[in-house]
Sequence to fold (436 residues):
Amino acid sequence: MQYPNGKLFTEEEATLLQEIILHRRDTRGNRFLGMPLEERHVDQLLTAALHAPSVGFSQPWEFVLIRDKNTRQQVKESFSEESAAAGNAFTEDRQQEYSRLKLEGILEAPLNIAVFYRSSDKPVLGQASMKETGLYSVVCAIQNMWLMARALNIGMGWVSILDPVKVGHILNAPSGNQLVAYLCLGYTDGFYTQPELEILQWEKRRQRSAMLWYERYP
Amino acid sequence: MQYPNGKLFTEEEATLLQEIILHRRDTRGNRFLGMPLEERHVDQLLTAALHAPSVGFSQPWEFVLIRDKNTRQQVKESFSEESAAAGNAFTEDRQQEYSRLKLEGILEAPLNIAVFYRSSDKPVLGQASMKETGLYSVVCAIQNMWLMARALNIGMGWVSILDPVKVGHILNAPSGNQLVAYLCLGYTDGFYTQPELEILQWEKRRQRSAMLWYERYP
Fold:
């Protein structure tokens, strides 16, 4: 087996990765610029996604790149239905706030990417005890893409207020495929300094000590 | 709302992120060195995780840092049970190959981190139509940590051959918490140039054209 020690990164390079992580944001429709993404940028986004880790090297991801307006309009309709239903779950004062939020950029972003999980038809190494690791592999690909988008100064938003079955039908997805994410991508006029829901005081950042345990739960 | 345009990254910086992504590997027990991780490195790993995106800014993640050998021994026992059962699913020639693979580093890595999902007790913005997005947020945190580990030249392995309920009991996790990942972390003697399962010809890298669709599935 070939075994070089592999590339060593410097402290400065690790710090740069931290910068990219800290400056990544969820971009919504009010921040996208109209022009299409350059092909070389789309290519870099996909390269990042396709080099994510996957359980048993199964690479169980599929990407549908959508630019067609009619398709995006149909997806937007599913968003509108789901969003109206979801709003009702909040308390009354939150419902008003919720209705004012811009939560997607399906029509404003020049590129939408639907990301599906496709399960293997044979046993996958490492997936027997935790079936969800197939889905988790797809999420790793999405997070790679998100960080690469930020490094390329491209905005990306993850729309989860959708009926995944309806979106599958719109895209003619095979019945076994499962929608993991619907992404909106495009150049943007900028990135907020903090998560938008933090700025709007919808949620607070949790204290680190509330999320860390040592050796075991008390 | 404060709104500066945000930091702009250069092409060279995006290329560096691509390098980190391409050089990330799953590290197993045969590659870990014994010495403990420096606290500042553990801190950088957690900072990366805690700045991942999360649905509705819910930050639904909890991390248990484990160094105790007795605890790790108990987790290792769950691995051994699950691995023996999983091996039987493969064809006969693969079973032999499978039994020779080193698939975890629970005892060799100086630090184990169990990552749990803890669901919110109130409605989460964006989670009503796709409940799994809570789990997906936790996976984004793990992938951030994995890339940061690589940039710090720290090996990380994700062990999924475990009974998540047993591991929860070992760690005294609240019954509502769900184990998403069990990670092994430590300094390493190097990183393979390709995924180990690719080098060993267990799986091939899939062709890009088999994973990409335009506008919709045919």
Chain A touches chain B through 111 residues (CB under 8 Å). Chain A is about 40% helix and 15% strand. Chain A has one domain: 26-190. Residues 69-87 of chain A form the longest helix (19 residues).
